Structures are given as structure tokens and as C-alpha cells.
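Hi all, a correction to my earlier message: I attached the wrong file for Hexosyltransferase. Here's the right sequence:
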Amino acid sequence: ARPEAADGRPGRGHEDFRPRIVPYYRDPNKPYKKVLRTRYIQTELGFHERLFVAVLTSKATLNTLAVAVNKTVAHHFPRLLYFTGLRSAKVPHGMVLVAHGDERPIWLMYETMQYIHQHFGSDYDWFYVMQDDTYAQAEQVKALVTHLSINQDVYLGRAEEFIGGDEQARYCHGGFGYLISRSLLLKLHPHLDSCRNEILSVRPDEWLGRCIIDFLGITCVSQLQGQHYHTYELAKNTEPEKEEEEEFQAALAVHPVSDMTLMYRLHKHFSRIQLDRAYQEIQDLQMQIRNLTSLTPAGEAGLTWPVGINAPFLPKSRFEVISWDYFTEQHLFSCPDGSPKCELSGASKADVSEIIESALEQLNSRYQPLLRFSKRQLLNGYRRFDPTRGMEYTLDLLLEAVTQKGHSHVLAKRVSLVRPLSKVEIIPMPYVTEATRVQLVLPLTVQDLDFVANFLDMFAMNTLDTHDNALLTLLFIYHPYDAQRVSQVDVFAGVKAMVGELEKRYAEVKIPWISVKTEVPSQVKLMDIVSKKHPVDTLFFLASVWTEINMDFLNRCRMNTISNWQVFFPVHFQEFNPALVYRGEQTASSSTDFLRDGHFDRYSFAEACFYNSDYMTARTKLAADILDHDEVLESMEVFDVFLHYSGLHLFRAVEPGLVQKYALRSCNPRLSEELYHRCVLSNLEGLASRSHLAMALFEQEQANST
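and the right structure:
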């Protein structure tokens, strides 16, 4: 209890718990200095990652035990490095190895502690050190550090006595792993050189324990803050599957592991234990949900199946109904390419086989030993993806049921299954910044001349006036007939005059243009010309004349496009024909009602963000594939080049910041059938919504009838 003043108010002992407002003050006599923000907000706020794991290995065991550690527990830890004295000629795939150049055990421990402090001391709260002949339960270790306070100096592991030393002092046995807090590592670092010169020991774990005790006065403990560090020492010829001791089942670390096979057997055994615990916990939670459901306003009717999984999505209109896909064991009747029937193969076939097998397993586990089921045939299969819960299945199975006495009977059963959505994972992505310069590329044909003025006005207002780091290149596409008459009548003379006015208004801005003569303006051929005239590190934004450029979208273009990793194809928002939507009424205000006034045009691939280096790489592979058949390029877009000839991620997403006014596009019949058909569909779906079209037809019929 804190002391209180005579009037009952908190005394001086409470001052640390009372909030204080620190006023902002800047000396007016000092020049203003721009504050440099950190790359990540967690750095600015002082957040640290939780756990770093160091595995001590050697040249002799790097390709055996260290590989076994990497395959069993490495993917459970957020960051894991392997430390060795000498390295072999070839490092196993997927392992980050640090070689110190000396196999002496004490030197290896000293250099490892120095390396951890130098590279990770300011980034992590906990450091777990283990050997490659140790099996550690990764999830248990991660759970352990979440229950420990980071404000204490922690040296936690299997406490062992020094040989001939102080009875009170203990060191942590290296074979069973040990945990060191960040505060302890920071205090230990200044004394590591003294420990290396003054402390003599054969074992590296004893050397480290003696160093911590002599200079910091901290001894190893096996229990701290109510948390126990359980370990188990394996005997020779141990059979993990037959070990039933409670000490073994609860162990966080097991040592010594003599070979790779034993490591894998231990991992399988402890994974089974964790899985059984998870299933038991799920059953307990489901029972609690059933017991509590009767107390809710909805009563037992509000209990959903499966218990604990989100309820199915309830559509509010017929347009929101999620359709079921029909399948058999050989065919799928809802194909990606739109065909009515296709062969079941690949991931879909594996999915169906696994679901049928799971259904039989559940039936047998429920009715055995009275009945044993085997599959005769899948009569009907239905599946659909519910975004609120996962993949749902309904199977009509023809089964053969066999009783304990051997009598068999054929019957049909309908079963329902759900594959719920699992834990969401954040995919690590390379770091990008919003400072990258964007090079806009605008192809123009004669049909686009009426819209160029609006595009240039929006470009000037949203990029030039705001000094955004963006440049513009115009691509004039001349028909052969217009190209022959360009000296007498230049169809793009008006556009060139507008560009000249912009360059006069903004003296530091230059807007170059490129003239091309072609009857078939292939997007790939045009991009080939532009690509050769820009550096390889250029970030292109391939725009259309109806695009209204704004700063928000350009920033998303920069953030969603990653060199040698990802390209971005935004789905722009296309406004409907105002003549059909408003029918003479006043148009909507600037705050556009997206659900009424337009739609996202999924048929258009005109806009794209990508790096020149990525395009050149994919284009080189395409050239090797088609050889001299350049006519193939007329049936392709830039999207197809990246889709079929690059290993990059293609990010296709709706972009509400990319809004286009309604305009009837001119579809070139000389392009490929697919591109022409896609252009026509884009025009048709861009007319109006179903309700607006229905109202227009109704009004027309009313007018005709009168």
C-alpha cells in the first residue's frame, strides 16, 4: 500500500502512477529541423520481436542433426540461425549459417554471444540457445516466453552444479537449451572479453555460466515466475513411442538426440501429443458452447454446426446467394474457363479425395465396432466457398455397411463437411517506399483525342501542382494513312500544343512523346518501344486516356509494385452512362455512390504498374518461346506476358481511387478475338446496372404502349 496524505489524497508514493502532460516547446531562436521518421512504427515505439533462436552445430553434424532440427522445429520459430566454427563446402538449403572460423567450443560460444549482441541485441526480448543434438518443443518454448517478464535478468534452463565449485552456483546445461533475456545479454556483453581471458573451462555452457555468475551474480534457475523449464534426458536405445513417463510428456527439451531418425520420431511423438491436446481442448470448448447456448436469447436454435465455427453466410438478396459447384469423382461441372464440364485434376482432385476419405473416417469412428463402412461410389458431390467460415461440402455416398457378424448392406448416406478457415498468416514482403518515381505511359489514338484535355488537366492538378515524383510520356499511335499526311495535317497537333502549354506553365517539366505507325496497336509492341527508351529500374504506370490520376493511387502503385517480386494490375471503377442512370435527373454529387453510379471493370487490363527490369525479363522469355512469330503479340496484353512468362506475383485488386468517367470505347476489330470480345463486354457492362437497364426498358415500353 502506498502512503496517503492527511487529506485523503494520494501521497508522494503515487506520483509514478499519475499521468503527466508534457507541453511541446520549440526554441524560436533555433532553426526548424525536419524530424526523420523510422522505417517501421514498431522501431519508433521501441517494440522488439519476442524470440531469437541460436543453434550451435559443427561441420561434422551440419548435414545431419542440424538439418533434422531445421526440418522439425525451425519453421515454428520466428528467427533461427545456425552457428558453427567451420562450414562445409555446401550449406543445406533453407538454413542461415554463421561460421566463426574456429572449432574450439569456448571460442564458438564467445563469438556466438558477440554476434547475437551485435546483430540482434536491440531487436529481440528473448534469446534461446540450443545444440543440434537437442529436440525442443518450439510451441512450448514460445508459450514459455509469453509468460515471463522482460524486465528481469533471466538465465533459465536445466540447472547443473559446477564440478568442485560453489554449491549455490548453477549453470544451464547446454544440451537442454537455455533462455537468456535481453537485459541480461546487454549487461553480459561488456564482460565477454574478460571472461574469455580469465575463465578456463572445457565445456562452453560451464564457461558461459561461470561468466554470468562471476560478473553479474546471476545463477541458472529451472523455475521462474511460476514457469517451469521441464527437460528429459534420453537413455540409449530409447523408444519415444513407448515412453509414458509424465516427465517425458511434459518436457520442453530432450537430450541427447543421437541421429536424425530419432529426431524425426521425437517430433512425430510430441506433435501427436500436441494434436491430442488441441482436439481435447476443442471438445471441451464445444461442450461449454452447448451448455451456454441454452442461456442465450435464441436458445438451442442459435447453435450452429459445427459447434464453434462461424454460422453460414446469410444472403440479403438473390444476388448474394453463394452457388454450389457440382462434382463427381471424375469431373467438375463448374470450370474455371467457363466450360460446363471438365476433368477433375490437380488440387481439386486431391481435395475431393481427401474429403471422401475424411467422411468415411468420421463415419467409422462414430459407428464402430457395430458397423464398418466402405465406399462403393460417390453419387453426388457439392461444394462452395463461404468467406465467413470456409469450404463447405455435401456428399451423397453409396456405402457398404458390414456388421460385427459379417452381414453387409448397401445404403446411401448424405454427409456434410466443413473445412474451416485456418489461422491467417501475414506473408513477408520486401520493403518498398513511396518515394519511387513513377513513369506514366499514355498510348493515344485518333479516337482518344476528345479525352486528352481532361487527362492532362487532372495530371497537372494532381501531380505537377503537388510536386509529386511522377513523369509523363505520350505515345502517339498513327494510322499508316495519317502518318503519310503528317507533314500537311498532324492529327495530334492539338495534343502537342497542349503539351507545349504545360511545359511553359511548369518550366521544370518536360513531357516527351514517341510517334508510332501501326494499324494494330498491340499493347506489347507499344511497350517494347517504350521499354527500350527508359532505364531498367523505371517504375512504369501504363495508363489509359480515361484515367484520372491522383496522388493516392500513385502511392498505391508504388507500394503494390515490388521489383523482382510483384506487379500490380488495378481494376478501375467505371462510371455508368449518366443518360441511363439519371434519365434527365440531376447527376450525383462529387461523393459518388459506387453501388449506384458505376462498377469495377474486371474486363479491362489497360492499367498496370510494373518495373522495366521485370518486363524485360518476361519479354525475353516470350521472345524465346515465339521465335519470329510476331503476329502472336497482337493477341496478347502486358498482363498475359507477366502471367505466362514471369514467376512474379500478379496482384489484381479493385482500386476505388482510379475512377473513370463513362465513355464508349472504340474496339479495334483487327485485334485478337479474345481482346475484341473483352472490349465489347466492358462497353456493355459499363452501360448501367441491371436495375437501371430494367427501368429504362420499362419506361420505353410504357412510352410505346401510349
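Sorry for the mix-up. The radius of gyration is 35 Å.
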